[in-house]
Amino acid sequence: MDINPDVDPQETREWLDAIDGVLEHEGPERAQFLIEQVIDKARRSGAYVPFSANTAYINTIPVDRQPHMPGDNAIEEKIRNYARWNAMAMVVRANKHTNVGGHIASYASAATLYDVGYNHFWHAPSADHGGDLVFVQGHSSPGIYARAFMLGRLTVEQMDNFRQEVDGKGISSYPHPWLMPEFWQFPTVSMGLGPLMAIYHARFMKYLQDRSLAQTEGRKVWCFCGDGEMDEPESMGAIGMAGREMLTARCEATARSSRSSRATFAAPAGT
Ligand SMILES: Cc1ncc(C[n+]2csc(CCOP(=O)(O)OP(=O)(O)O)c2C)c(N)n1
């Protein structure tokens, strides 16, 4: 049951129309000012208007202010489909004759986010950029391997030996720079360490820049987090610091994993 039923829809409509008019003719800043004045007036006059830190679960960039996506959507989607498939295939194939396990749904649910990052945002270290810092959520590792496979960085043998790296021919379960120094940037999946490290890296990069100790401006930290992971004390504690220091953390909760049965690797022709 709605605890605040709309007892006068026409009056509600008039107020909403008024805000629409302000937004259209005077802009969002004026609208925000007026809304705050109204809330303040109501509170001072005895109305109970509790504070809420939650915002509507919507895209905060209005559709008419979204720029067009650059690049070729059709090709990007095709590559993404291959990556999703290969990620699933490597887990299933590695489990054919073993019980090593592995995750499918985490990457499948976050594939577009990783893809857009790879295609449009992330910088490798180069002469004119220090490089971005990307914390991959641990259970999404098959998707990162799947993309690397299509780029020719990993072999079918390595893919088939997912989670069986002890003999040196496989690849590690999770992001692990100690086991795969040429591949992974940061270790994650000890839940909470990714968000914790990402936030402190961002904080100290700003510190170094502000004190002219290092040139870090323009370098960004990208952190992919599990929803379960965000309950960890490491994540919860660090995110408070990120708020106080006004850092921007980009986190995405991933879905729970599931297993599938049969699969083969797919690679787009010519890669
Ligand atoms: C500190 C810690 N506790 C427990 C685990 C075991 N563990 C690995 S992944 C996982 C669940 C992760 O869930 P979520 O963050 O939602 O990611 P998803 O599996 O959905 O990708 C657990 C409990 C761990 N890796 N680290």
Short description:
This protein is an all-alpha fold. The chain has helices at 9-26, 28-44, 73-94, 105-121, 141-150, 156-160, 193-210, 233-244, and strands at residues 133-135, 221-223.
Description:
With 271 residues, this protein is mainly alpha-helical. It folds into two domains: 17-46, no CATH class; 73-244, Thiamin diphosphate (ThDP)-binding fold, Pyr/PP domains (Rossmann fold). It has helices at residues 9-26, 28-44, 73-94, 105-121, 141-150, 156-160, 193-210, 233-244; strands at residues 133-135, 221-223. It has a two-stranded parallel ribbon. Helix 3 (73-94) crosses helix 5 (141-150) and helix 4 (105-121) crosses helix 5. Residues 106, 137, 139, 189-192, 226-229, 254-257 line the site of thiamine diphosphate.
